[in-house]
Amino acid sequence: MHPWLIAIRLRTLPAAIGPLLVGNMLALELAQFSWFIAILSMLCGVLLQITVNLANDYFDFKNGIDTEERIGPLRVTQSGMISPISVRNGMIFSLCLAVAVGGFLIIQGGWPIALLALATVLGTLCYSGGPYPLASHGLGEIAAFVFFGLVAVVGSYYLQAGETTSSAWLLGSAIGFFNAAIMLVNNTRDIRTDTKAGKNTLAVRIGEVQAKSLYQGLVYIPFAIVIAGFLLGNLKGLPVLLAGLALILARRLSIAFSENTGEALNPILGQTAKLTMAFSALFSIGLAFA
């Protein structure tokens, strides 16, 4: 695989695509729905995810977190496949593209989208870098929940509708938990090396046993949320029923995560991202036909 394809971590991109797909599909029935805005919002989300991935690769190497002891997937900076300067420049380029695309979205959504865009850019840069890296202070999972859950779903729906709904908030929360689970797998795998490097992720703080228990909640709670949304009359039955099929994958992953540790968690990382995409795609198909 080409080094830059490794660097952008293709298997993590569903974390950005899934919530934006759902947010836009929620607005599909609206008269003012725009496919152009939908595509732009998903493009912006993917570019921001790539920026986060490159920033994580660059800053973890720069801060001495990624070393030869690393057991996670290959990092292009630490391995020497791409120079640190090139990865940094790639991060800046991707962020600039995201900001450029986001400019069109701000014109569409006005000041609320401008505020969300500013917060998202700051969150992207501060995830691994800056004076208080979120990932190094146990806030990575919370950042994933907020930006790749609530902000992505509610923000993309607002772009289409000019308002928010309880449905968007419920689905933003559900998908946010899935994306937090992705982050938790990554951090649980790296407990030993992160502890040695002084990177105090949530998994480091609570320990592997508690992290495994937390993962169970993160992949099951989304199903409880959408069922509750249906019972309360906020969500339609067909999307909830179809999304429920993803419970099969969630169950399989919860068992695999509880039984494995260290490097053996690498496949579960990508599969948890697929869980996010499966849930989002199934719910979106249900919305299209409901």
TrEMBL record:
Signal sequence interval, chain numbering: none
Q: What is its EC number?
A: 2.5.1.74
User: Matching InterPro entries, A to Z?
Assistant: MenA (IPR004657), UbiA_prenyltransferase (IPR000537), UbiA_sf (IPR044878), UBIAD1 (IPR026046)
Which molecular function GO terms apply here? 1,4-dihydroxy-2-naphthoate polyprenyltransferase activity
Q: What is its subcellular localisation?
A: Cell membrane; Membrane
Its pathway, per UniProt, is:
Quinol/quinone metabolism; menaquinone biosynthesis; menaquinol from 1,4-dihydroxy-2-naphthoate: step 1/2
What enzyme category does the UniProt record give?
transferase
This one is known as: 1,4-dihydroxy-2-naphthoate octaprenyltransferase
